[in-house]
Write a structure and sequence with these properties.
The structure is a single chain. The protein has helices at 7-17, 30-44, 71-85, 88-98, 107-116, 130-146, 162-180, 200-209, 221-228, 232-235, 257-264, 284-288, 290-294, 309-320, 330-343, 347-378, 383-395, 407-418, 421-427, 431-444, 453-467, 474-486, 509-516, and strands at 150-156, 186-191, 241-246, 273-279, 300-304, 451-452, 490-492, 502-505. With 517 residues, it is α/β, with parallel strands linked by helices. It has three domains: 102-121 and 307-371 and 398-418, Orthogonal Bundle (Helicase, Ruva Protein, domain 3); 129-304, 3-Layer(aba) Sandwich (Rossmann fold); 421-516, Orthogonal Bundle (Arc Repressor Mutant, subunit A), CATH 1.10.10.10. The relative contact order is 0.11. It starts with 6 loop residues before the first helix and ends with a helix. It is flat, with a radius of gyration of 29 Å.
Length: 517
């Protein structure tokens, strides 16, 4: 239902507000009945009355902070645990009780809402990731105190707060070292996608470690780092160094040498590296660093789980709580959280959907105002009368539930985000082609970027066996791969042997998951 239907609709709302019953041609239209019911509902929800109680978001963790902390350690623990201690239900209810509805026509308010929901806007506290941050911070503090090198691998699905949490841990560690009287570590953060070639990471580390060092042509940066940490004389007096390598899977080469050499730097007898690698693949350390495991030097693994519905709601409400007005219906936020959690648990996707819903409301209001102006001109109404009606509408903006982002806006935003031609195509596929796609997604979630048709067939056979569905023959399976290739969902490479052809996903993994959930 548009926020502004027509000039007559506005006058109907005005007369209803004055206590009159508006009639047109002997009866009220459904449009006007809906407007009156909405207006009445909003009148009943005055700032003095108690609003409907919201179901409190489930808390992510239940453990209490460590006792005995003092100084900066206590402050860090309080930051990590503040959300856990706060009475969430009372806080949310009080915020809804004291805040007016927003005005989407206010440019400053619209800009503030968009900024609050933007992915690049870092919150002051990373909610629902307190335990993960404490594990990483505890590991770094222990190594820093003992002046001992070590490696840690952070993994999890996209949009689960890995990079943001590591930024916070970095700041916490530097503050703690300063307060504890320890030498502050050198911090080097890098996104591996920015490297022109994988081995460039060693030259960047060396440049951070020794900015004025000039290498001769016979020694590579990696060799220089290895020599540096092989002898106590060279490494004595050097600071501990915290390296945070994001998108670590970009360092995976065919021989896996770069990734292996990077982690091996933490195993040298006089190494002063604390390495934190971040990537999506859960089993990257097992598959690509087998030698470290055989040497009992496998990195500690911290896994970030996908956000649940309650966690997404909590994070969205925390971002919106900083605003002095209400923007979303609670049911709209719940719908967004439920759909995103079911599809991927990606918090970035949830923020994108909310911003899209706001744009839909904004477009709806522009269209409604345009229709009202057109109707006023066609009916020959006086400009003064139209202006007074519009002024009345604006003055009552905070009292109309129509100006909030509603469930219907959120439903359209979710449909635009998750439903694409690819999703419709996947939904219409025969059952065995859908099982083939499930097999591919399951395989690629392990961190691989491609696979052979033979490996895909084996994964497909396993799913058919567990689902008690008779599989198709080998020739028909090859035919299904070609069909999905022609439809742009899979990419099948060239090879004389069909089983050795390389297969990659062309469609987005979240689209496939959403279509087959």
């Amino acid at each position: 239902m548009p926020a502004i239907a027509s000039h007559n609709s506005i006058m109907a709302v005005k007369s209803e507000n004055a206590g009159e019953v508006a009639r047109s041609n002997g009866g009220s239209t459904p449009q006007k009945r809906r407007l009156r019911s909405d207006a009445a509902a909003v009148e009943n929800m005055s700032p003095i009355s108690t609003p409907m109680k919201l179901k409190p978001p489930r808390r992510c963790v239940n453990s209490s902070p460590n006792s005995g902390a003092n100084g900066i350690e206590m402050e860090i623990n309080e930051k990590l645990m503040s959300a856990r201690k706060s009475p969430v239900k009372k806080k949310l209810c009080d915020s809804f009780k004291s805040k007016p509805n927003w005005n989407p026509q206010d440019v400053e308010q619209m800009s503030a809402v968009r900024e609050a929901l933007h992915v690049s806007t870092a919150p002051s506290t990373i909610l629902c990731r307190e335990d993960e941050q404490k594990k990483v911070l505890g590991f770094c503090k222990k190594n820093l105190e003992e002046e001992k090198a070590g490696s840690l691998y952070v993994c999890g699905c996209p949009g689960t707060g890995k990079s943001l949490s590591m930024e916070k841990v970095q700041h916490y560690l530097v503050d703690w070292a300063k307060e504890a009287g320890l030498q502050q570590p050198e911090v080097f953060s890098i996104n591996c996608t920015s490297l022109t070639n994988t081995s460039e990471i060693f030259s960047k580390i060396l440049l951070k470690l020794q900015p004025r060092k000039k290498l001769n042509g016979s020694t590579s940066p990696l060799q220089h780092l290895q020599n540096l940490y092989s002898q106590k004389l060279h490494s004595s007096g050097m600071k501990m160094m915290l390296i945070i390598a994001d998108e670590l899977d970009y360092l995976i080469t065919r021989d896996r040498a770069v990734l292996h050499d990077l982690f091996m730097l933490t195993t040298f007898p006089f190494s002063r590296f604390i390495l934190i690698g971040i990537a999506n693949a859960i089993d990257l350390a097992d598959r690509f660093l087998p030698r470290l495991q055989s040497m009992n030097c496998k990195p500690l693994v911290v896994t970030f789980q996908a956000y649940s519905k309650d966690q997404i709601i909590r994070i969205l409400q925390e971002r919106l709580m900083e605003l002095s007005y209400i923007v979303f219906q609670p049911q709209a936020l719940e719908l967004c959280a439920r759909k995103v959690a079911a599809a991927s648990g990606d918090m970035r996707k949830a923020l994108s959907v909310c911003r899209s819903a706001i744009e839909i409301l904004e477009a709806e209001m522009r269209e409604s105002v345009s229709k009202m102006n057109s109707a006023s001109a066609e009916q020959g109404l006086f400009d003064q009368q139209a202006a007074s009606a519009f002024e009345f509408f604006n003055s009552q903006a905070n009292n109309f539930f129509l100006l909030l982002v509603r469930v219907d806006h959120m439903a359209v935003a979710l449909s635009n985000t998750f439903k694409s031609p690819v999703v419709d195509t996947i939904k219409s596929l025969p059952q065995h082609q859908q099982i083939l796609l499930c097999s591919a997604v399951k395989f690629f979630r392990g961190g691989k970027k491609d696979m052979t048709v033979g490996e895909l067939n084996k994964s497909y056979m396993n799913i058919c066996k567990t689902s008690l569905i008779p599989p198709v023959g080998t020739l028909e399976f090859f035919s299904m791969c070609r069909v999905l290739h022609d439809q742009g969902i899979l990419k099948v490479g060239q090879s004389r042997d069909d089983k050795l052809k390389r297969v990659t996903l062309k469609a987005d993994e979240s689209d496939i998951t959403f279509a087959l959930q």
